[in-house]
Structure formats: structure tokens, C-alpha cells
Amino acid sequence: MKRTILKTIPILLLACIVYLMSCSKSGGGGYSNGGGNNNGNNPPPPDNSVSMAGMSFGPNTLTVAKGTTVTFINNDNTTHTVTADDGSFDSGNIAAGATYKHTFDVAGSFAYHCKIHTNMKATVSVTD
Question: Per the structure, how many domains does the chain have?
């Protein structure tokens, strides 16, 4: 009987450790922005900023007041661009970990994309 119990204890300990490890992380994580894909890898970006993570921009639509400077933060492991569809701004290449800032002085809706990864698209909406 003692041998059976002694053989069972390591198995039970291992099962408990596996269970506790699986419970220690929240499923999904990340933030919801109505678009994009954060995959729970990065916290939501600060106010008036856009994160590039998971090969997407987040939030998918950012609304700011006229005169606001928006910071685009590359939280991905690859280079991206922030390029206005209408040509009004273009960051050039933004290396992993780098940022780009643009001040929106005109009200309107500004769609932008990454020249390198054409599936990456989002919008800054500027109000008066």
C-alpha cells in the first residue's frame, strides 16, 4: 500500500503543477479595438497613439481633435510604414521598437496603410 501511494504522489504533484501553470495566464488578453489583431502580446497603446502589433494597427480607428499629434509605435518584430492613402503623410520605414509622430491639423478622415504589408490598414478620424 505504501508503495502505491509513493508512486502516486509524483504523478499528482506533476498534475497539480500543470494545472496551476495553465490557470496562471488569462486566455486571449490584449485589447479589443474593433479591428486589428493584438493577440494579447502588447498592452493597449496610450491615448492618441496607434500600436503596430500582430501585423495590424490598433486601434483600427482612432478619433482625435484637430491639432493632435498621434504617435505610431512599432511593437512588432518587423519594419512597417504609416502611409496616408491620400499621400498627405508617409513615415518611411519604422524599425521594430521605433515610433513615428504626425500632427493632424485638418479635420477629416485619414485612411492609412503599411506599404510593406498591404493588408495593414486603419484610419485616423480628426474632429474640429
Answer: 1
Per run of 10 residues, the mean pLDDT along the chain (length 128 residues) is: 57 47 36 38 76 97 97 97 98 98 98 97 97
Q: Give dist(CA 32, CA 25) in Å, integer.
A: 18
| 15 part of a folded domain | no
SS (H, E, C) the chain: CHHHHHHHHHHHHHHHHHHHHHHCCCCCCCCCCCCCCCCCCCCCCCCCEEEEECCEEECCEEEEECCEEEEEEECCCCCECCEECCCCCECCCECCCCEEEEEECCCEEEEEECCCCCCCEEEEEEEC
Instruction: Evaluate whether residue 100 is within a structural domain.
Output: yes
pTM listed for this prediction: 0.67
Q: Are 76 and 96 in contact (CB under 8 A)?
A: yes
